[in-house]
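Journal club prep, shared notes

We agreed each person brings one worked example of a sequence with its structure written out as tokens. Mine is VWA domain-containing protein. I'm keeping it raw so we can talk through how to read the token line rather than staring at a rendered picture. Sequence first:
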Amino acid sequence: MSWIPDFGNPERLWTLLLLPVLIIAYLIILRLKGRVALRFTNTGMLGRVVGPQRRWTRHLFVAMSLCSLVALSLAYANPLGTEKQPRERATVVMVVDTSRSMAAEDVAPNRLSAAKQAAREFVDSLPVSYNVAVVTMAGTPAIAMPPSTDRGAVDRVLDSLQLEDGTAIGDAITAALSAVDQAPEGDGDEAAPAMIVMLSDGTNTEGPAPAGPTTSAKQRGIPIFTIAYGTENGFVDIDGKRENVAPDKTTLQTIASTTGARAVGADDRASLEGAYKEIGSVIGYEDVSKPITATYAAVALAFAVVAALGAVFMAARWPR
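Then the structure, token by token:
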């Protein structure tokens, strides 16, 4: 819960204007009482008449009363908090890198085979009401599977993925956005929320830079979660030449942060499964506003009880 929540009825916060008025009134009363006290020359007699009171306790109990007023004013304005609730429906576009670098064997048995298995497990963990699409990311990205709730079809598409030349991250994001547009309409008035999960182990080598399509995703409110896949020492042999294929973590981090999503890394099978689970825990829930008036009312009650006890304490004639 935020220290400064949203309010369902912010116009009711005018009651907080009473706080400075009461503080000023209290200071004026203290000043007048001080002038009255100066009329007594025998302070011992004054002490026996009024009784012993500690100045700081009086101020403390007044402060508790004012704090109670503040909490009640905030409760009156209907404060709103947030809680995470499972999404009932969503569209998830899986973007899987199928470039030649995915043949690297730094992740057993190789990057692509491990990625297929982890992607299948991730898809199977999603609610059955979610539409899932698959986009291949190589030199010419394509929608391999339009959004569907048919998990068997998604698994078969993932199994059929083959290595291709090139890595076009920008075009892959554009294809993923097109896949979102193909999602079937739900029963509600609003379209189901959409998100993209991109797994890549390379640098953009084909097509436009990812910046433009990433900005389009941001404008549409579609987060792009990224997984930087592979080790820094991964390599493949291409035309008799050994090429290092370390993941481009910087580019993937920029894509995720620009769209308000999360970027994670994975350098082995276990960490890849963990990365998908981490992302799944985010996309499977949404923040929903809920009234938290009772919380503020409870705080106001606590302050009021302390203030009431203080009033009783100061009014009582304790034996000396």
